[in-house]
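Cross-posted from the bioinformatics board.
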Amino acid sequence: MSEAAIGREDLIQLRESVERWVEKDYPFTRRKAALASAAGYDPNAWRTYAELGWLGLSVPEAHGGAGLDDAALLCLMTATGRGLLMEPILSTCVLGAGLIAACGTPAQQAAHLPAIVSGDSRIALAHAEPQLGFARSPIAARARRDHAGWTLSGEKCAVLDGPGADTLLVTAIDPDDQLGLFLLPRDAAAVEWRPWRSVDGRHAADIKLAGAAAERLGAGDAAAALDHTLDRATLAVCAEAVGVMDFLVAETNAYLKTRKQFGQALSRFQVLQHRLVDMYIALEESRAMVDITLGQMDADSSKRQAACSALKVQVCRAGRLVGAEAVQLHGGIGMTDDLKIGHGFKRLMQIEAMFGNTDFHLARYATVSDALDPP
Amino acid sequence: MLSHGQDDTAAFRREVRTFVAAELPADLRNRVCLGKLLDRADHTRWQKILHKKGWIAGHWPKAHGGCDWTPLQRWIFEEETTEAGAPWLIPFGINHVGPVIYTFGSEAQKRQHLPGILSSDVFWCQGYSEPNAGSDLAGLQTRARRDGDHYIVSGQKIWTTMAHWADWIFCLVRTKEGGKPQEGISFLLIDMRSPGITVRPIVTIDMGHHVNQVFFDDVRVPAENLVGEESRGWTYAKFLLSNERVLVAEVGKLKRLFRQLRAMAAQTHEAGRPLPHDTGFSRTMLDLSIGIRTLEAMCVRQLGAGSADAPPGAEASILKLRGSELMQAVTQAMVEVQARRGLPYQIEALAPNWNGVEIGPAGAAGMMREYLFGRAATIYGGSNEIQRNIIAKMALDL
């Protein structure tokens, strides 16, 4: 994919405009309304993201996008974290558009990418399987080809944002034992849906495929492209986590200064100051790791994998600390659904569970880098 | 099971175990083990079984309907029943206000309240925390003004667990201004049906309704509902809180959850292999196992050494601190199991009449709820920061 490096000035401008919009137009009440709605996200907000050009930041200009490098995407993701946006930007723009741009034929790209940019199409990735856990292989789902085309069989789980998508991207093994990616319309026959909601209120589903007709995305083995896209999505969701943590640290800081017990502000207690300092350090370390990992994404695959796994370990640990401490330092009020704090805590739980947890990425890090060498 | 080196202790443990195996209804046990939500009738059912046996308040003196159990016996009872999957004993009557009433209350109060607590026909809740009095409980502002034979109570309590089920509330109220904040506090028993009381639910991050705000708008409370002496309420409150802290070291429940965690992990896969084979996860399990052993050792050592009326000081705070942290760690490990399935969680799945399909191993949603609501365990009953202050003062003279 050809992309233009985004200039420093443009990046600052983008960051300011995204942050301003989130601050002004996506208050907590809007998140709560989206959570309570049947769709689980705000379709009007989605429409606005398209109008503002957010959905096409990384899509090539030829398909209506801005064709910017991922500094722009990460800036957007951090802002979505700060505002705890509910809309499926990660699924559609990073996983969906990313895989279609990487693997799709020119015709498939022309058919799907403009619709993503305009907000008319939402994509979800169906890759995980019940026996797979966080591992990315071996995939058990099978793809067969007959005179009418490809059909898919198997079980997929944790299809994030699946119920609200119009198209699923399904991974399955073809008769040549290669990993194929398949475009499956949301309403395709021979697909059994079991929808559910994740701890942070997102909509997801487990699905069973019993010979569902699908269109292959591109040709040949997609394993390398999938691994790259999952790493890129890891980076994107870590940037989102930075936004969530940034919000939690700022909000906890403000609360400690306001809340008085024993005749003084909680922020006067040194033991609480140090706890907030540790949250802040975890946030700053995560920010630095996101920045440095961005520069490794086009390196050879083992360098990229090591960088992304190291990043996810850092963000899983930081997110766990910052989320739990934000609730703890708020006390009882931090436990309520009425406060944004608990929502941030649960979003960080969800992010920890996406694309591999600490154990998974520690093990992966050990296989892709010589752990005893300095990085 | 640890050996306590005493035959009568071992015999008591066997007796409790045999009783629970015979008398705990299977449907209740099943729901507790799956982490389903229980209603008031479910709790009453089990508590009445204990009452019939004479064990509902075994740690109370015989004179008041108990069995004179030692702290160690009481702890063994809690451990055995919760490990077997018995419902949590609602503590507000039996463990909290009951002992306050028989220790500091009038004869009339004992006659009026103790039988209903023992039979579980009367449910209590605890009116302690207020919006501006959390860790700094002594800063509470709910006022009780004397008016002839009554107190007129106005103010607001918060985080009141099960106020929506309760028939009565025991409240800390301010009866005197000025002086040290602890000095003007009194302990009042208030009928929840009194005009002027409003209960408003609070939804917590597990999306459940367990806690409430309770508003008092010029509620008239008969003066004979004052426990002990006016302005001595802080003493009674401290007596009560120290009892609460011991109970947070729920070793029996930890063991049960740990077994469930192991079973759920065995049904969950990583790269095609059951999760217990995963190096990282098995390390987590081993750490938790040692944590539970250590907590049990602390409980046995501290409770075995003390006599029935020894004032629990730093020891209770250590148990509260470690018990709550360990409960969070065990349930967090379960979250790591369910993370393999994308972290599904809906509170509706825990309702008795829910007929959807659970994602992942049975009981996973219940464990997730335990984790989410369990974040409060390091906040309530005196936050863990306050417990560390107590330990610093009592054990280390800092």
